[in-house]
Each structure stands twice: as structure tokens, then as C-alpha cells.
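C-alpha cells for chain A. Residues wanted.
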């Protein structure tokens, strides 16, 4: 049987599809996913070789400054997604369905998913939850729209959890996640995010499922990893959970650059002759 070669990261790489992700899992190649909310960042992340760009409802926190992901609306998610889609040449773009846009019933969920696909040009949607989300997952996937699930610490349920601590440390919740993961796969999800759960549980779920499992704070044995871009670039220095690795210190870099600009303007060192007409 011939296998489609897996090519990721190159500037001339083909578009990533849900099938590419499936192939990456099959070939044991970890999937790299990051969040994106705007055109300029999405262009840079896409060209740098990220496989999946998630227009996450974490936009509610990092773009809009809300404390939780609950306030962001579907219209606002679509605005962010449109900006990202305009920039992307290779990555698969997955868009979070906002809180309240899919929990009511499966018809509302389908209408929301269709809006995201039609108005933003997204490639897939993501929604949180296990059993309560199954009917909506089935209805959306039946309409031909790829759905990514999300279990573990699901931020849209923060007021039910009451805390952002690690989930599923007890057997009951761990077993519920195992079962929900299997049900989501059966309902047609093409992938699953597991957030902030013990690494051993995430490893079990990743090997039990045939769809790719992407972890955030879920250890090294998932089929891929996702981080909020603002966290990994050091733009959110007041948010420092242990699962975030900082690959840059952009808050410091930006602060220094802006301080230098202000100082130059004050003493008329900017603009120079060469920067003038
Ligand atoms: O909204 C988001 O950024 C997410 C990731 C944390 C997976 O859902």
C-alpha cells in the first residue's frame, strides 16, 4: 500500500488537511498546533511551519482582556477567523465555537458551525465537552464539517469547575474522560484536545484512539501539542502555569523597543534625515 508522504513545515508544503493529521499520527510524527487570532501573527506562524492554527476562544482572554472565555461572541470569533484565514497558506485552521453558540441544541450548533465555515472560510470547528456535545458533533460532522473535540479542563465550564487546577486526578473523572474520548471519536471527531490532565491518562487516551490527540498541559505522549501563542512567546508574563514553555520574551523585547522609540522621539533622534522626505 502506498503512503502519502508527510511534508510539514516547508514554505512550499501542501495544505494540511484532517487526513494529513491522521497520517502524522499513523507515522508517529507529533503535530504542532498554536493559537492565532489576527492576520499578521497567523502569516508568521503559518510560514514557520505550524500544522494547525487554532482560532481559540482564548481570544477572549488574550485579545479582549476578559477574565474567562465566556464573553466572546460567535461574531467576534468569525472576525478573528476571517483575519487568520486571509493569512494562511498551509496550516489547517480550526475555529472554536464560542460559549452559548452550540450548547442549546444540535440545530443551533450546526447553524453556528455553518456560519464559521461560510463566513470565515474555516477548515474545521472545535467544541468543548463529552456526552452533552455528542448529538451536536454528529449533526455537524454529518453536514460535512470536521469537528475537533476538547476534554479535560474545558475553560467554558470554569464556573462549574470553580478552579483552573489539573482535572481528572481521581479515577471517576479519568474514566469519564476515557469514555467521552471514545464517544467523541465514534461521533465523528477528527481530533481531540486534552487540556491539563495527568500525562499517563493522556497517553492512554492517545493510544486508545485512532484520531490524533493534541495535548496542552497533558504530557509528552499525545499525538501533538498546542499552546496559546501569547504564552509561549512571553507576551503574558502574568500567566505562568508549568505547562507553558516560553520560547521568547516578547514582552521584554517590545517594552525595550518602545522605550527606545519614546526616548528617540523626545530628543528628536527619530526620524533622521534618511527617514524623512
Ligand atoms: O482557546 C484556546 O486557546 C484553546 C486551547 C487552550 C486548546 O482551546
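Reply:
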Amino acid at each position: 500500500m502506498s503512503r502519502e508522504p508527510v511534508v510539514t513545515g516547508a514554505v512550499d508544503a501542501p495544505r494540511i488537511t484532517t487526513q494529513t493529521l491522521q497520517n502524522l499520527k499513523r507515522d508517529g510524527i507529533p503535530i504542532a498546533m498554536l493559537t492565532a487570532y489576527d492576520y499578521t501573527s497567523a502569516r508568521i506562524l503559518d510560514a514557520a511551519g505550524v500544522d494547525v492554527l487554532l482560532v481559540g476562544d482564548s481570544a477572549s482572554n488574550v485579545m479582549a482582556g476578559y477574565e474567562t472565555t465566556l464573553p466572546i461572541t460567535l461574531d467576534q470569533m468569525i472576525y478573528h477567523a476571517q483575519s487568520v484565514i486571509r493569512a494562511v497558506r498551509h496550516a489547517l485552521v480550526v475555529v472554536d465555537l464560542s460559549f452559548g453558540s452550540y450548547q442549546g441544541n444540535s440545530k443551533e450548533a450546526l447553524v453556528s458551525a455553518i456560519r464559521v465555515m461560510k463566513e470565515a472560510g474555516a477548515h474545521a470547528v472545535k467544541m468543548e465537552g463529552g456526552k452533552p456535545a455528542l448529538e451536536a458533533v454528529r449533526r455537524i460532522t454529518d453536514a460535512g464539517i470536521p469537528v475537533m473535540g476538547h476534554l479535560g479542563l474545558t475553560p467554558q465550564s470554569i464556573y462549574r469547575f470553580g478552579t483552573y487546577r489539573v482535572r481528572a486526578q481521581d479515577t471517576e473523572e479519568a474514566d469519564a474522560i476515557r469514555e467521552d474520548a471514545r464517544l467523541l471519536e465514534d461521533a465523528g471527531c477528527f481530533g481531540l484536545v486534552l487540556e491539563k490532565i495527568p500525562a499517563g491518562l493522556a497517553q492512554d487516551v492517545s493510544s486508545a484512539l485512532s484520531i490524533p490527540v493534541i495535548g496542552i498541559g497533558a504530557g509528552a505522549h499525545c499525538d501533538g501539542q498546542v499552546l496559546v501563542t501569547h504564552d509561549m512567546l512571553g507576551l503574558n508574563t502574568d500567566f505562568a502555569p508549568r505547562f507553558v514553555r516560553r520560547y521568547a520574551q516578547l514582552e521584554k523585547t517590545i517594552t525595550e523597543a518602545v522605550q527606545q522609540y519614546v526616548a528617540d522621539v523626545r530628543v528628536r533622534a527619530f526620524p533622521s534625515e534618511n527617514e524623512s522626505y
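Confidence is low (pLDDT under 50) at residues 1-7. Residues 250-277 form one domain.
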